[in-house]
Design goal:
Elements: H1 2-21, E1 31-32, H2 42-47, H3 49-60, E2 63-68, E3 71-76, H4 82-87, E4 91-92, H5 93-105, H6 112-120, H7 126-146, E5 159-162, H8 163-180, H9 190-200, H10 204-208, H11 217-226, H12 232-236, H13 243-254, H14 259-289, H15 291-310, E6 320-322, H16 324-328, H17 331-344, E7 349-353, E8 357-360, E9 366-369, E10 374-377, H18 379-383, E11 406-407, E12 410-411, H19 426-443, E13 444-448, E14 473-478, E15 485-487
Parallel strand pairs: 1-2, 3-10, 6-15
Antiparallel strand pairs: 2-3, 4-7, 5-14, 7-10, 8-9, 11-12, 13-14
Length: 488
């Protein structure tokens, strides 16, 4: 009887393998990178995605296919082909978005294309100034909260904290209140949400690939807390609610979507902002770890503030006011953010192949991409390409000041691929990061504690921004030459 069971089990495994894993390579298709007969290339990717893809490129060229169990991803390594990949109509992003929404956040968005298109307008154009003004106000409030004034409003001369904790209590809190407005809700507030997202994100890649959340008890528990959101009517009643959440919530309600759907959508938006928080952590860490970078940026920030102050009328009082265009144009600040993104980005730009497609690389070679597969560009592999960036593993804060970058003797249009090509709020996210750093340099004098060093956790390649392996301790205090600034 045991032998019969073993034979039956073997036959079932063979059938599963043939149906979901094995397939015959067709003429004109990209090479399939060899891997484990069952798991494919998942372990090699997890161990070090960038090294694995660079080795695969060396062996198979600028396009090849890898496999994660039953899912095949054709990887395009040529940076000059990014635009062609984004414009190919048979490469569909909506299917990937549905997969993430359903597998990770358990909801389906009705009329997704229209909602995303219209909601995306609320983080661009004329809305951008309003959103940044709200963010600047909440950020100043969060800075004041970590200064820990005593009853006589005296500020301690020196304070200690974890850098990641500090950024969560300042930047993440400011973004949270900018999104949802302020309330007395003790369950859905930034500290709790940040802590739960920290746990939940560890399982993000497993969930979006389709593994059930019940396999991860810690993720299940964290998600239960994240779902303790106020009802949509309560959120809509808040006067300081963000335009994005207001529009998207009203849109979903008008299309008959449930409270669970609205809740899931809100978690997706928080997920995006959580990655902006991660970017801010790495910006500050690299600055603190590089004294020259820190001093150069401080000089730029102070010169900018002093110039603006000196331009005011003699009787003009109150905060020194900036618009977001002035912050965007600062060359050292911009280079620091771009270099940090280059160093810590882990995003996957993935599309679903709706039909067999002949895809032409920039060099003119044509490859057949099979229906049902995924096609992807992995920006970190481009960002760490030594043919594009000299010493790609070294942080150089001024790398992007008046610089051009080339691959195969052709200039790159976008050397750093920020949050993917379809993110409607990437300008807003970069502005938040820039204003956070600008404001922090003006407000706090900060340093790393002795011997502290942060490392990126490469186990989380596939996330938008890689997390650190552990937090690092910092010392900080209010600057003596602090000047009150705000965004208009």
């Amino acid at each position: 009887m045991l032998v019969l069971y073993l034979i039956t089990f073997t036959i079932i495994l063979a059938m599963i393998y043939k149906k979901y894993i094995f397939r015959q390579h067709r003429k004109g298709e990209p090479d399939l990178v060899p891997g484990h007969f069952l798991w494919g290339n998942g372990e090699s990717f997890r161990n070090n995605a960038v090294d694995f893809l660079h080795k695969s490129q060396k062996n198979h060229g600028d396009i090849f296919t890898i496999r994660f169990f039953h899912q095949r991803l054709t990887i395009i390594m040529d940076p000059h082909s990014v635009e062609a990949m984004s414009k190919e109509r048979k490469f569909d992003f909506e299917a990937i978005q549905k997969q993430v929404n359903m597998n990770v956040f358990s909801f389906v968005l009705v009329n997704a294309r229209k909602m995303i298109k219209e909601a995306g307008k609320t983080v661009r154009g004329s809305y951008l100034a309003t959103a940044m003004r709200r963010y600047a106000t909440h950020l100043e409030e969060s800075f004041n909260s970590v200064l820990k004034m005593d009853s006589n409003e005296n500020v301690p001369s020196d304070q200690t904290d974890g850098l990641r904790k500090f950024v969560s209590k300042t930047n993440f809190a400011a973004m949270f209140y900018t999104i949802f407005g302020r309330s007395d809700n003790s369950e859905f507030e930034p500290v709790t949400v940040y802590q739960c997202f920290d746990v939940f994100h560890k399982y993000f890649n497993y969930l979006w690939l389709g593994m059930p959340i019940m396999l991860f008890p810690k993720a299940t528990k964290a998600l239960q807390v994240l779902c303790k959101q106020p009802k949509s009517d309560e959120i809509l009643a808040r006067e300081d609610l963000s335009d994005y959440i207001r529009y998207s919530t009203e849109f979903m309600k008008s299309h008959g979507q449930s409270e669970q759907d609205i809740m899931g959508h809100n978690l997706v938006y928080l997920h995006v902002n959580y990655n902006t928080f991660r970017l801010s952590f790495w910006c500050m860490y690299f600055l603190l770890a590089d004294q020259k970078a820190y001093e150069t940026l401080y000089n730029e920030v102070m010169a900018t503030i002093n110039k603006k102050r000196d331009m005011r009328n003699e009787d003009e009082t109150g905060p020194i006011v900036f618009n977001y265009q002035e912050i965007e144009k600062l060359p050292v600040l911009d280079s620091i953010v771009q270099e940090t993104l280059r160093m810590c980005s882990g995003v996957f730009m993935v599309r679903y192949v709706t039909d067999d497609c002949d895809f032409k690389l920039d060099n003119g070679k044509v490859y057949t991409i099979r229906k049902g597969d995924r096609v992807a560009i992995y920006p970190p592999a481009i960002h760490k390409d030594p043919e594009i960036f000299e010493d790609p593993l070294v942080y150089k804060f001024d790398r992007f000041i008046d610089a051009k970058f080339y691959k195969n003797n052709k200039q790159l249009k976008n050397p750093v691929l920020t949050f993917g090509t379809l993110c409607p709020g990437k300008r807003y996210a970069l502005l938040q990061a820039k204003w956070y750093i600008f404001s922090q340099m003006n407000t706090f004098k900060m340093s790393l504690a002795s011997g502290e060093k942060a490392e990126m956790d490469i186990n989380y390649h596939g996330h938008e921004i890689l997390p650190p392996v552990k937090d690092v301790d910092i010392h900080y205090k209010l600057r003596e030459d602090y000047q009150q600034i705000t965004m208009h």
